[in-house]
Amino acid sequence: MNFFKQLGRFMMMGARAHAKWELDVSNTILGDKKRLIILGLLTIPVILGGIAFADQIGGALPELLGGKKAYSPAFYSTGIFIVSILIGMGAGLITGCIGAGGGFIIAPALMSAGIKGILAVGTDLFHIFAKAIMGSVIHRKLGNVSVPLAIVFLIGAIIGATAGGLLNRVLYEINPVLSDAFITTVYSLMLGFLGIYSLTDFLKARKAPGAADEGAHGGKIEGADLGSLPQKLQALKIPPMVKYDFDLVPGGRSISWVFLVLSGALVGLAAGIMGVGGGFLTFPIFVYVLGVSSMTTVGTDIFQIIFTAGYAAISQYAIYGFIFYTLAMGMLLGSLVGIQIGALVTKVVPGITIRGFYATAVLAGFVNRIFALPAKLGAMDVIPISPGLGAALETIGVWAFFIVIGAFSVWVIGTFLKNIRVLKGEEVRS
Question: What is the pTM of this model?
Answer without folding.
Answer: 0.81
